Amino acid sequence: MRTLTAVKMSAWLTLLALLPLTLAINPGVKVKLTEKGLEYGREIGMASLQKKLKTIRVPDLSGSERVAPIGRVKYSLTGMQIVNLGLPKSVLGLVPGTGVSLSIGNAFLNLHGNWRVRYLKFIKDSGSFDLGINGLTITTSIAIKSDETGRPAVSSVNCVTDLGSATIKFHGGASWLYNLFSSYIDKALRNTIQKQICPLVADAITDMNPHLKTLNVLAKVDKYAEIEYSMVESPAISKSCIDFGLKGEFYNIGAHQEPPFSATPFSLPPQINNMLYIGISSFTTNSAGFVYNKAGALSLYVTDDMIPPSSPIRLNTRTFGAFIPQIAKRFPGLMMKLLVKTAKEPIITFEPNNVTLQATGTVTAYAIQPNTTLSPLFVLNMEASVSARVYVTGMKLAGAITLNKIQMTLGTSYVGDFQVKSLDNIFLMVLKVAVIPKVNARLERGYPLPSLGKMNLVNTQLQVLKDYMLIGTDVLFTG
To answer: What is each CA distance from 227 to 28, 253, 323, 358, in whole angstroms?
Structure first.
């Protein structure tokens, strides 16, 4: 009979087996690291690895060996230090479905130390020595996975080293002893050094993880929103690149509510000229619209001081009374205020070389009474279409919009019926000179792109494609 603990364990295992299926989501942002980007990473990594290998510490060694014809010789090797180490040739390659392979060849290592021997019970000799190792090779595989925070993590597997050829040169002491004894010293030192190389390589690779943990998996945008860039799947590794799928979703700060739509699959084109490619889907930008609309941030009061002084159209009951006489009669000589707000989240569409935004909203007009209370005049329903220009600035994605057209209908009137079309020119002007500049000022500040540490983008280009934007760029790390 199965115990209660066994039943519970079985249930947990079943649940864990189902989790990857139930939690699987499509990424809103995709990042492609090309072989060119890997090569840049290799250059940075080899400098770090060389520094790490120079920390090889060879402990003092002692022992005894029988050396013909003089018998047993006791020896000690002390004060050994690496004086030179070079990794002139290295190759970083992609292993589809697995990770990255690192092959280092023609490496060399020079070590200096002191030797001391004792033989025939009472004869002692000492001096120094230099050990040179040439043709050192190191081969290791680097696994790339997602850690518990949704950031990439790397580890070393299957490390193999070959110390190649070695030469040892003794200084001081009885020269006749050198050739008799060199093979024993060579063997002892090679074994000690070889045991340290792979662990140090593994350490150097693991040392990359703190840098990878700087990925801004939750990047604050402003007081309303943040963007999540955690990985939603393990990296996909092919012969030419590594693809990372990131969530790429805007959330209200402190309240992560999913929008009433989800990301759809998309694929990046097979471009490899840049180090890095970032694909930003329409899901990501539309999730921003959902967040800002939900936060009430897509609303704006427009007052007369926001209209250029040179404009003949003013926000007062006299101007509007010219088109709606009952306003001038009921509210003579008063200033007005307009509340422009979205009725639902805007819809952003990406087509080749074209970004458009469709917004549905309302415009509520108020007369400002002498005691500052607001008297509602009318509410108009508004459908607006705008075009957007998107660009990369620093480590942010920014933009600017241009109004294409608006269509307005009467929602509610508190001053009787009137022809809405007669107000088209007024509202076109209001949107262009008061609303659009405010929106553009916010878009100009930009939204954070996924980044690691002190990372800069160079040679950056942006394309608008079907359902997503593609940023092709090289990178430069400054620290």
So the answer is: 11, 9, 45, 22
146-151-152-153 Cα dihedral, nearest 10 degrees: -80
Instruction: Kindly report, residue by residue over 109-128, the tens digit of the pLDDT.
Output: 999 999 888 888 788 888 89
pLDDT of residue 261: 93
Distance CA 315, CA 304 (A): 5
| Cβ atoms of 228 and 218 closer than 8 Å | yes
Confidence of residue 251 (pLDDT cuts 50, 70, 90): very high
For residue 240, what are its two tokens? 């030419």
CA-closest candidate to residue 204, choices 90, 110, 83: 90
> How do strand 152-162 and strand 123-146 relate by DSSP bridges?
antiparallel
* Contact predicate 265/27, CB 8 Å: no
CA gyration radius, the chain: 35
**Are the C-beta atoms of residues 295 and 252 closer than 8 Å to each other?**
yes
Tell me if 84 sits within 8 A of 109, measured CB to CB: yes
Owner of token pair 């018998």: 71
Q: In Å, what is the CA distance from 328 to each residue of 139, 324, 413, 425?
A: 85, 7, 15, 19
The whole-angstrom separation of Cα 97 and Cα 104 is: 22
pTM of the predicted model as reported, rounded to 2 decimal places:
0.87
